[in-house]
Design brief:
38% helix; 5-stranded parallel sheet; alpha/beta; 5 strands
């Protein structure tokens, strides 16, 4: 194994160790996702590819600290990521497939508090809109 390969393996092992400490290995439901955003100050990354966005993305829906960072172009958005790698990040899509991949990428980059929304991001957008219209 090369030094580079060993470094990657060590980062993956560190990410797995951090995930083991999180309830659900970092997969959260809608309620916990909302708590992460409202109470903990997590940023939300909506990573749906453009073809999967029906209506507004999370950023357009004005969810606080939400960014639309489509999976297919994710590396183009690295500059919006927090400099503090302990900042909580919630990653979301429709079924969790793309969000789980992005979670792995973020953890490989050294982010420690990454979570995946186990619910459909469209439901979170709808709940947010209902909440702010009250």
């Amino acid at each position: 194994m090369t030094t580079l390969d060993q470094n990657i393996v060590e980062r993956i092992e560190a990410a797995i160790a951090l995930d083991k400490e999180k309830p659900g290995l970092g997969n959260v439901d809608m309620q916990k996702g909302a708590e992460l955003i409202r109470e903990v100050g997590a940023i939300l990354l909506d990573v749906r590819p453009p073809a999967k966005v029906n209506g507004e993305n999370a950023e357009e829906a004005d969810i606080p600290d939400a960014y639309y960072t489509p999976y297919t172009d994710f590396t183009n958005y690295l500059d919006i990521l927090p400099k503090d790698k302990t900042t909580p990040i919630l990653v979301a899509c429709l079924k969790g497939w793309f969000a789980n991949r992005v979670m792995g990428y973020l953890e490989a980059l050294g982010y420690e508090n990454v979570f995946v929304l186990g619910a459909n991001i469209e439901d979170m957008i709808a709940a947010h809109k209902a909440h702010i219209q009250k």
